[in-house]
Every structure is written in structure tokens, then in C-alpha cells.
Design brief:
With 408 residues, the protein is of the alpha/beta class. The chain is built from 18 helices and 13 strands. The chain is 45% helix and 16% strand.
């Protein structure tokens, strides 16, 4: 799937790398972007050390990226939304951080820029670079899902004018950008690497104190503030229905951001759920579960790679969704990553009006109680896994990025 890619190793350091510190700027947002950014930075540091290169990394991201040693210009892990109205509360903080980022790019000697997901803000940064710093190399890693959206998937990519190279994580994504005439390397999905250290079901249950035969469901309602309003009530109402059918079921809720603790705790009480809220143990919670009910996002792929059946949903403000359908002809074949990998319906997913407590509870109970349905999902996961690439994704991405460092 790669096109025109080079190999970078400790035997072939880039010219001028001796006694030279290269400064990278990495821009991403939201919880998932912070995770992917931290995995990439760790790989960049590892590959740079092998090559005898010194790196300084400045970033827009979150706590995970900061923990790797990146110097955060702004924390964007809680600044993110989908939908027109949903974006309004984030416009001013996003604008302020964008202004800081552009000042940094203008005033500091940045050698290379890596954009990770975070479509709107990164598109703005990319356009600024092309207008004012046209020679600065730009790599887009985990590109926006233009290849899924309609009618954009039939038209010209919005990032074709800003990225010198795309590091694609999905095969279909790589094919789309290659058709756009862009330089593309398919590296595979970074969660493949993260799963190498994932706990087993047995280990997770022992760590969390869950009995081997206890029916357990993981609820993943929110990594954006808007999702507390539009998704949490639907998911918790579905959980209520499941609890009535299966009185002994236990729910576990991994906390994505500490700021969401109080509203989620209150919702658990209001909906009278037998639920436990935990922080910093999302992989254990998912791995221990018999089923997950999750909002659409990167977590869906993590759930699939842990072989846990799942029900996926997403809802926006009704007016935002109407605008997207009416004026932008928004239409997608699938929304969850497990289904997008090979464009096949592996997991049940419900969007907007279809995302009702009844639909979610029914699909969840089917996966919990129907062995044939459950087995079909697990078989679909195995097929999906083969299309995600081999271990070493983050290192391959890091190697590609380091080949683009300018010679001195």
C-alpha cells in the first residue's frame, strides 16, 4: 500500500543529524488524539535515539502527550465536538490556541509538522503553513475520514493542498488518498501496538474483583462534553432496560476525563444503575466485560481488539444533523471503526433517530444471550484484525516522519 516511501534506520541517519536537535510540532485534540499522539511520540523518541538524532517536540495535545516529554503549547484533550451547534462553545478557546500555534510556527525554527486527526483546527493550521511557510514539511497521520463522508469521498480531498505525506491507518483510506494523487504510506492502525500489552479477561476480572461468572457490561458514554447531553441518557436508559431483564448484571464505566466524574456519578444515581465508575483503567474494564455499549469512536476498535462484542451509537443536536443532511448531503455507510475497516457490518450501530434505548437494549441483549450472534461478531473481529496491519505501526510511522526531516 505504500507509495514512494523510504527506509530509515540507525544505519542511515539523515544528513546533518550529528549534533543537531530537530524540533517537531505535533497538533491533535480530544482524548483519542492525545492517546495516538503519545504513542507516536514514544516511537519517535525510540527511533530517533537509534538513529543518533535529538528531538524536541512541541505540541497541542493532552496529559498523555505531556507525560512522554512533549512541551504542551495548549491542552486540547477536552476541546472537541461534532456538529455545528455543538462546536460553538469551543470556538473561542480553539481560536486562542490556534493563534498561539501559528505564532509558534512563525517565530520558532520548526523543522517538521505532524497533524493528527482533529480535522477543523488542523486544517486551519495546515492552510496557514501553506500560505506563510510553504517549505515546511507537513505529515498528516490519522487523516480525517473524508473517504467515508459523502459527497466528499467523490470529490477533492480538503487536505490535499496542505499535506506532503499521508500516513494512513486504514487500507481504504490509503486507496482514497492515492487516488487523490497524494504521497501515501499505509502503516496500519496504532492500536495494534497498544494491544500488545493489554490485559486478558481473566487478569482484568481478577484486578477489578469481578467473579468469573458475573455478567458485566462496560458503558462508554462520553469523551466530549456534548456526549454527556446527547449520548449518556440514551446509554443509561438502555442499561436500565437491560438491568430489568438481567437483575444481576453489573455495569462498569471507565472515566475518559476527570471533569466528567460528577455528572456521570449523578447519572448513575438518577438511573439507579448497579454501576461502578473507574478512572485510568479503561482497558481492564473493557477486557473484563461480556459486552460494551459505546459511543462511536476510537474506543470501538479497542473494544473489538479485546474481543468484546459491542453496540455502537451516536447522536448530535437534531438541528446540526438536519443541516449536515440537507446542505452538506451528509451520508455514511458506517460510522464505527470496526465496520469501516473493510466496510462490513460487524457490530450493530445506531445513528441519530435510530439510537433509541429500545434499539440499543435489544441489540445488547441479543449479543449477550444469543451464542450464534456473539460468535458471528467474534469471527468478524478476526477478519477485521487481519486488515489492520502488523505490530510495529507506531515505529513505521515514526520512521516515515524522520525521513522527512530537512537536511542541513
Amino acid at each position: 500500500m505504500a507509495s514512494d516511501s523510504k527506509t530509515f534506520s540507525s544505519e542511515t541517519p539523515p544528513p546533518g543529524s550529528t549534533h543537531r536537535t530537530y524540533r517537531l510540532f505535533i497538533s491533535t485534540g480530544e482524548v483519542s488524539g492525545d492517546l495516538q499522539g503519545s504513542l507516536l511520540i514514544t516511537a519517535l523518541q525510540r527511533q530517533a535515539e537509534r538513529a543518533g538524532i535529538e528531538l524536541e517536540i512541541l505540541a497541542l495535545g493532552g496529559d498523555r502527550m505531556a507525560a512522554t516529554g512533549a512541551q504542551l503549547l495548549g491542552n486540547t484533550s477536552a476541546i472537541g465536538s461534532l456538529g455545528l451547534l455543538e462546536a460553538l462553545p469551543h470556538m473561542w478557546p480553539t481560536f486562542q490556541i490556534q493563534r498561539q500555534a501559528k505564532r509558534l510556527l512563525r517565530e520558532q525554527a520548526i523543522d517538521l509538522v505532524v497533524l493528527i486527526d482533529y480535522f477543523g483546527p488542523n486544517l486551519s493550521i495546515g492552510k496557514y503553513i501553506r500560505r506563510h511557510l510553504p517549505k515546511m514539511p507537513v505529515v498528516y497521520y490519522i487523516a480525517p475520514q473524508e473517504w467515508v463522508w459523502s459527497p466528499m469521498a467523490q470529490g477533492k480531498s480538503q487536505i490535499s493542498g496542505i499535506a506532503d505525506q499521508i500516513l494512513a491507518i486504514f487500507p481504504e483510506e490509503a486507496r482514497y488518498y492515492q487516488k487523490q494523487g497524494m504521497k501515501v504510506t499505509w502503516v496500519g492502525h496504532p492500536l495494534i501496538d497498544r494491544m500488545q500489552s493489554a490485559p486478558s479477561r481473566e487478569q482484568s476480572r481478577a484486578a477489578l474483583g469481578i467473579a468469573p461468572d458475573q455478567k458485566t457490561i462496560a458503558l462508554l458514554p462520553a469523551s466530549r462534553s456534548q456526549e454527556l447531553k446527547y449520548l449518556l441518557p440514551v446509554i443509561f436508559q438502555a442499561a436500565q432496560q437491560i438491568q430489568k431483564t438481567l437483575p444481576d448484571v453489573q455495569f462498569w464505566v471507565p472515566l475518559s476525563l476527570e471533569v466528567y466524574r460528577q455528572p456521570i456519578e449523578q447519572a448513575i444515581q438518577d438511573y439507579e444503575l448497579q454501576a461502578t465508575l473507574v478512572s485510568g483503567r479503561s482497558q481492564e474494564v473493557i477486557a473484563a466485560a461480556d459486552l460494551a455499549i459505546s459511543k462511536s469512536g476510537t474506543a470501538n476498535l479497542e473494544i473489538a481488539l479485546l474481543n468484546v462484542p459491542q453496540v455502537v451509537l451516536y447522536r448530535l443536536n437534531g438541528f446540526s444533523y438536519w443541516i449536515a443532511q440537507t446542505f452538506f448531503k451528509f451520508s455514511i455507510p458506517f460510522m464505527s471503526p470496526p465496520n469501516l475497516v473493510e466496510m462490513k457490518p460487524i457490530v450493530p450501530e445506531f445513528l441519530q433517530e435510530q439510537a433509541t434505548p429500545d434499539n440499543i437494549a435489544q441489540a445488547a441483549l441479543d449479543l449477550l444471550l444469543n451464542p450464534d450472534r456473539r460468535q458471528k461478531t467474534l469471527e468478524g473481529y478476526q477478519e477485521m484484525r487481519r486488515a489492520l496491519g502488523e505490530v510495529g505501526v507506531c515505529d513505521r510511522a515514526a520512521q516515515e516522519i524522520l525521513t522527512m526531516l530537512p537536511s542541513r
